[in-house]
From TrEMBL:
The lineage of its organism: Bacteria, Pseudomonadati, Pseudomonadota, Betaproteobacteria, Burkholderiales. It comes from Pigmentiphaga aceris. This is RidA family protein. Gene3D superfamilies: RutC-like. Pfam families: Ribonuc_L-PSP. One of its GO terms (molecular function) is deaminase activity.
Amino acid sequence: MPKQIISTESAPAAIGPYSQAVSVDAGGKTVYLSGQIGLVPGTGELVSAEFEPQVRQAFANLTAVTEAAGGSLANVVKFTLFLTDLSEFAVVNGILAELVPQPFPARSTVGVSSLPKGAKFEVEAILVI
């Protein structure tokens, strides 16, 4: 699935591992992934009370669903991130840069007051396979 990265100097440049916009040929299968938090699959409990382990587990969960759909994180065209503390944003950027290959997908980040089970982070995605 070739991604065409859309970039313009008429809007602010990306300030992390994401693109301003991504265009894909609609001939592929589009998959909308529900949000994932840092729950351990076997227990249904949060992996940790700490932020970074929750982010890593949420991405592990998202990766598992992505693979079950027949894709990988390379097929993601849009992430939406939900953080209960936006001061932790740099941690997520670092993990995204580590896990997601370039060209980076589009992304939105939202600060929220709370998430299910007291989670500190949630991620959802759209992929095209």
